[in-house]
Amino acid sequence: MTETFLFYDIETTGLSRAFDQILEFAAIRTDDGLTEIERFTAKIRLRPDVIPSPAAILVNRLSLADGLSGRSEYDALLEILAHLNRPGTVSIGYNSIGFDDEFLRFAFHRNLLPPYTHQFANGCRRMDLFPITLMYWLYRRELLRWPEPNGTPSLKLEDIGAANHLFSAPSHQALADVEAALRLARLLFKEKRMWQYLDGCFRKEIDSRRIDELPVAFSSAAGEHRLALLVAGELGTRQRFQAPVIALGHSIAYPKQSLWLRLDLPALRTCRAETIPESTWVFRKRAGETGILLPPTARHLEALEPARREEMEKNVAWIRSQPALFEAIAGHHRRFRYAFIPGLDPDASLYQTGFWSRADEALCRAFHAAPATEKAAMPGRFASAEAGTLAQRILFRNLEEVLTPELIRARELHHERICSPTPMSDFNGLPRTTPQTALAEILRLRQSPDLDETGGRILDELYDYITGRFGGTPPAAQSGT
């Protein structure tokens, strides 16, 4: 099957994967030589139950009129899903696996669409241009101008794009960011041997084979413990996005995750059985996904400062001298499970709920195929209470014309919950934006000396929208001033 690349980007109402929404989606499909085939854009109107993050709306420079126009979320996601799942599609963006892809997964979940098929079905897979760019910054710097605002390296797309003239329109517009990402990819693609190697990092079979070829430091009851140099965005510029690691084995609860213990931290040698959580740092890696594992050759390790290489050597020697404690460290992280969150809102329950039953999956397909008038009678037929609630929300968020008294009451209860000053939390325990927190943020942003006239107008419109729709009390009124 011939693959095509789908470069894409999203602009959103905020950072919460569970509770915010996509406002703009843009994509450019190319052949395997990065020649454009087609492009697709979707502007999605603001859902009636979303309270936008004022800071995010300022970054996107979206007026309220723009936000309230466009297609319904449900209608747009049906088409976005089809683009991502076209056979042989490699979906790719800048930090897409770290942000955009998870945002899409939650959007598909709350609209009863399959959240994972674009990762594996029909010859589809994912790549991420951000870690690819990290590798070029580390090993092929001559291909680009690398920005250093305030003397610190920046690998933000907006900074790399400005330094290399990749933008034809302001950044933080979905299509402009996609065009810039594609231009960046074409520059990197010129070094084809490097590109092909990094392409293999996002192919499960190749990545798994490379991991199996890493050198073994020693073996234990948990298996072979291999050494590697991890390249990952979360390590940051101060660490040059790299850290030496050793394999602990695979997670027992999540067997597709391999676990890698960081070796350059002095705190590791202070570890005791009772302090494992706070004195060890472990990276969770799935084959074919972000987190590039390089063999710990002299060439790769020379990128680490001498002090970090020395810490690595000390920690490897310490681990070898503490087999029982190392086994306890490995066992702790291998047995780890994410905590069950009681009362988690269905919008946020993707990871906790897991896959629907086969009967409910079939009912999801029937729901999408049914005319709008028939959809209204279907929420009560789901075996899963969460799926039934999500079906109700699809209807009252997107299909006002078919609402029954029962659905209208469900919408009212949902609205009351959103307006409560006590926020619901997402799967990470992070709070949903409330009217009160959004209004407080607007007042804070109004004090910024960098706020221009357009930004002030955007904040004023948003303030009026939130107070009018959600009844939020301005913080000044709450304090009696």
In total, how many domains does the architecture comprise? 4
The structural class is alpha+beta
Number of strands: 11
Mean pLDDT over the full residue set: 94
Overall helicity = 40-55%
The low-confidence runs, each spanning 5 or more residues with pLDDT under 50, are 477-481
Per CATH, the superfamily of the largest domain is: Ribonuclease H-like superfamily/Ribonuclease H
Q: Count of DSSP helices?
A: 21
CATH structural architecture of the largest domain: 2-Layer Sandwich
Shape: globular
Q: Sketch the major β-sheet.
A: 6 strands, antiparallel
Gap between N and C termini? 67 Å
Structural write-up:
With 481 residues, this protein is an alpha+beta fold. It has four domains: 4-200, Nucleotidyltransferase, domain 5, CATH 3.30.420; 205-335, Exonuclease ExoI, domain 2 (PX Domain), CATH 3.30.1520; 346-419, no CATH class; 438-479, no CATH class. It contains 21 helices and eleven strands. The strands form two sheets. Strands 6, 7, 8, 9, 10 and 11 form a six-stranded antiparallel sheet that branches. Helix 4 (96-110) links the parallel strand 4 and strand 5 (125-128). Helix 19 runs antiparallel to helix 20 (453-470). The longest helix is centred in the C-terminal third of the chain and has 18 residues, at 453-470. The radius of gyration is 24 Å and the shape is globular. The relative contact order is 0.11.
